[in-house]
Amino acid sequence: MTTANKPRAGTLTNVQKAALAVGVVFLLVGVLGFIPGITSQYNQLSFAGHESEGMLLGLFQVSVLHNIVHLIFGVAGIASARIISGARSYLLYGGIIYLVLWIYGLVIDQNSAGNFVPLNGADNWLHLFLGVGMIALALLLTRGRSHNTTEASTASRS
Asked: What residue intervals traverse the membrane (predicted)?
């Protein structure tokens, strides 16, 4: 990587900012899933399974497991944003995971034991949007950049 392409210590590249933003949003969504009022039918929130009737924002079916997955995905995004390659990998592979979840949500019976996360129609379309969006961010924000770089662009490396 040439000096002109190398980020200055203490600055984040666009892909790192994107991974950080996505991570913060997932973390926020995970927390919101545990707040009564923001999650309607909170008293019917189960650990896992399609029986959970908790609805984040009254639209997305959630469970304790679903919220924990959002929290973990959020922490992973924030942690991966420390290095360019980590941010890119988080967005790319996270996007692939969400596309797989979208397909899974389309093919399973929403009232079956296979719907253990749980997922509903709104979740499915959100997963499609997230998958495509995260992959696009990973590819567009690192276009023309070496993908093997591991240098941190945080102040701790200065």
From this structure: 18-38, 58-78, 90-108, 124-141
> How far does CA 60 lie from the centroid of its chain?
15
The tokens describing 93, both together, are 């592979």
Q: Could you read off the pLDDT of 111-151 as tens digits, one per residue?
A: 888 877 788 889 899 999 999 999 999 999 998 765 444 44
Contact partners, residue 131, CB within 8 Å, separation at least 6: 95, 96, 97, 98, 99, 101, 102
CB 32, CB 13: distance < 8 Å = no
Q: How many helices (H) and strands (E) does the chain have?
A: 4, 3
What is the pTM (predicted TM-score) of this model?
0.81
Amino acid at 10: G
Instruction: Give bridge partners of residue 61 from the DSSP assignment.
Output: 55
